[in-house]
């Protein structure tokens, strides 16, 4: 990546972060649009999780990763502490790979 591209990305990132506080009082967004944007952010995050769960280096990541993400997802849904969610997901994936049940 060239230095010009790095500076352009930095300037764009800074401008996006600065736009929020500067435009907060000037632009009024309806409650329906706020709810729609909130849902869109959740959908985007879910798509990222699904993609990174399924693929690694252009190929299938394996069933062990699916199991680990599922365990972590269930624990997060049940409002378990974050450390427990991460450790349980990692342990599930590691144990399945170690035993050879799911690669």
Automatic annotation (TrEMBL):
<feature type="transmembrane region" description="Helical">
    <location>
        <begin position="82"/>
        <end position="102"/>
    </location>
</feature>
<dbReference type="InterPro" id="IPR008407">
    <property type="entry name" value="Brnchd-chn_aa_trnsp_AzlD"/>
</dbReference>
<protein>
    <submittedName>
        <fullName>Branched-subunit amino acid transport protein AzlD</fullName>
    </submittedName>
</protein>
<dbReference type="Pfam" id="PF05437">
    <property type="entry name" value="AzlD"/>
</dbReference>
<feature type="transmembrane region" description="Helical">
    <location>
        <begin position="6"/>
        <end position="24"/>
    </location>
</feature>
<keyword id="KW-0472">Membrane</keyword>
<keyword id="KW-0812">Transmembrane</keyword>
<feature type="transmembrane region" description="Helical">
    <location>
        <begin position="36"/>
        <end position="54"/>
    </location>
</feature>
<keyword id="KW-1133">Transmembrane helix</keyword>
<feature type="transmembrane region" description="Helical">
    <location>
        <begin position="60"/>
        <end position="77"/>
    </location>
</feature>
